[in-house]
Fold these 2 entries.
Entry 1:
Amino acid sequence: MKRVVATGRTVDEAVTSALVKLGVTRDEAQVRVLQEPTKGFLGLFGGRDAQVEVVVQETPEQAARSFVLELLRHMGVTAPEVRLNSSALSARECVIEIHCAESELSMIIGRKGVTLDAIQYLVNVVANRGQSEQVRFVVDAGQYRRRREEQVRRIAERAAMRAVRTGKPVPLEPMTAAERKWVHVALQNRSDVRTWSEGVEPNRKVIVSPVEVASGVSEPARRRRDDPRRGGWSRSKA
Amino acid sequence: MKELIEFLAKSLVDQEGADQVQVVEERRSDGVRYTVRVAPGQLGRVIGKQGRTAKAIRQVVSSVASRTGDRVWVDIGGADAREGDE
């Protein structure tokens, strides 16, 4: 939501100046008159200007778009563009793709995506404030998230193979919550390994462990994840 | 850089608090220090739960700074404000 208070000699003048400041048309805005103008003595002395409050109700998507664009400009990105794609899975999820020069990608993404994650966190806070319906925004640049997801999947598959081959649990590198989830999802349908997370952020990591066939446990892996003694991932935070 | 920090702080506080956002730039021999001041009661918005918002601001700022090779500190609230707010 954007709000501007403006003054003018008449209500109309005040509203016009507020609309100019907001850069919107009259139809998009809600106007509230805070103070009617009064004429002073002989129309010269002691008169009061009109004061109005003009409010534009933005959707979370609109707020997110203008926030990201302005943020990128302030970061010194030349001619940034953003594209918003509503998720196929849910209308309440929205992917914001940042397009810019190749040379500026590393600054926007950061080492291991930390800057991208920071931008994403800030968008979610700013664009959802005061909104009745929250939208979850995912921010991507240069297809970083897609490539990282594929990479994490490959890491997961390789760890699963090693766990089965050696018969020992394989700890992965520390990952963010979203990345850990990709690992769990990638391996959830395998019956020969199970996964859970250990450690404290930002060093929380996934453990890929073989299912001990040798001990003769016939209980399905899915059930065992919920076993409190094992700290299965469905109980602890993914 | 100052404009970037100001923009972030203004985006995070309430509409009414935006006018009261102040960023003070202080040049030092080993870098630049920015102190962000906001209206009392708005500090939580720029710091966030467990300092997550403050951390995100610092990450964006340091990412920009590293491109230019600057050393930059961002002090949110400033030592005085923090004492008064808690």
Entry 2:
Amino acid sequence: MRAAGLMLIVLLAAGTAGAQDYLDCHFVPGWEPSGAKRQYAADNLFEYKDGGAEGYLSFGFVRMQGITCASGGNTLDIDVSEMSDADSAYGMFAANLDSSQPVAKIGMGGQIQKQGATFAKGKYYVELVEVAANPDSDDTATMRAFAVKMLEHLEGRETPPAALEWFVKEDLASTRLVPESVLGLRELKRGYVAKYKQGQAILVQEESAEAAVSVMKSLKDRFAGATSVTVGDEGFQATAKYLDGICIFRKGKIVAGYANMPLAQDAAIQAAKLAARIP
Amino acid sequence: MAPKTSRRDFLSAGLMLPVASAGSKMGFWKPDETAGANTAGAKTPGSEVKLDYRVLGRTGLKVTTVGFGCMITSDGSVIERAADAGINYFDTARSYQHGNNERMVAAALGAKRKQIVLSTKTHAPDKAGMQQHLDQSLKELNTDYIDIWYLHARSNATEIHDDMIEAQQLAKQQGKIRFAGVSTHSGQKELIPWMVQKGVFDVVLAAYNFTMDAGMEQAIATAAKAGMGVVAMKVMAGGLRSVKPSDPMYQKLTQPGALLAALKWVVNKPNVATTIPSITDNDQLEENLKAMGSQLSAGDQKLLAAHLEMIRPVYCRLCGQCDGACQKGLPVADVLRFLTYADGYGQFALGRERFLELAAEHTAVRCGDCAECTVQCPHGVHVADRMARAQELFA
């Protein structure tokens, strides 16, 4: 028993050391470490991200490791947040992306800017923030070079969550993971939301079809005047003050649908298209 | 030296304070019950909710005692619904989701902007950066003025430079903001009195909840007495949400009304004008609305007392009173934190790593060798037991 415990300690310690291989200022020539590596857990993240820690915690933050690099008069903070799973890491990236900038194929997704970058790979969400001596300098190449080298050292998935492919592509504006209460409804604990030119679609995966049935019943009870529709295995449509025309359906253990459409019938038409794309 | 108050004394005193301020005013909101309306969370459709208002210090702004922290809200419909319900104080920040939060708040509030008090924050390190942030916030929030503009998350006076104060004052003169404030999560007991002395801040946004000691109560009172508006955040103490199902108190602490009790505790503090609990869904919104104008019941007090009792032996409040108290020189608060990594968050490797970074003479200490522990935590943490556990786990 004691031997097993010791083995566990050794393995855990080794895992921690290995994880820091992705933090190296020498990934790009001319950069040197400035100060010691930093490390934060959920209970003390506020010491570093004071005022912003909750945003990380809501996406299943486990811990953060970081380093500051320096080159000439420029400094670069590199922080790698380990989230509970790859979907959460992607969710963190999607929640923080600059919607006016393109998303690049870096890991599951990334954005490279003049003096910073963000990307997600596996369960890791990475942030690069440069403070440049010349605030107008364009260091995109440096940011990209760091990102590319870090990708080689970070383990995990490089494809976005599969569920995002199920959303109808026509007029799609953005997708994101909502970590809690999709559409502001507590029953829809965690899921994806796609924004369209008009309205928004949701995808929530329950643990089982039985659990999804229960969620559907609870949701239907919320909306006065809800009427059944033939979408997926079961569905309903309604008109609500804040969600406008809405149609929610279940297909197996997936609860999905449309909201904020002009009419409930419009939501039902779109929901049928979505249902057809869900395997 | 701060007076040593036992946790139980503090709890008793805190829970028996008079309810609501004499200056509070009431209004009413009736949940929408029209056919087809989204009655999400309205357990008693048609029932009226009392709206309770207080004046936010010298700003003169009349705010509902329950406001809305937008930081982790992911659907604008909840914000829209809250504004319709009568909540009139909404808080966001430039840094929340890299500005995406401000954009969502603007879209949700829409035409109601002029009827509500809107605050945002900047974490920029200098005047130029702050001005850039302010212009960006105005653009994202789709407004030509911010009601309260906070310096974001300052822990001590050295983090507030003169040029930052200049930036706030200039923004006031330009009409871009109405009032200047500071948000703070730590070091508050020193920072708030400094802010009062400085005399240039209209509002303080402070972390304040039922787990805090009497020193914080004093700091809040000092600010209110000086005419500074007090807005409370972290009012749910976080901990109520982090209770694990395996805990024997789980059922009790997660029962309906537990979070409401924590909110009521703050709302019933007369020196606090408003609160900004994070609200993610309609049910939570409905529940929070009930905190306005309602007294802290005996049941609420029992719930909060149970929570404090649960966390008392292990929960370090970082008050610093154990600094230098260990006869062997152990940095007690640090070791408690490392133990929390392992016990509280399942991060054994991280806890051990941090523990082993301590000086060799500290990692070599075995608390069992001392006949008596010289560290007496004023908040009831069983220090000797916790240190021994850390040594057993990590050393």
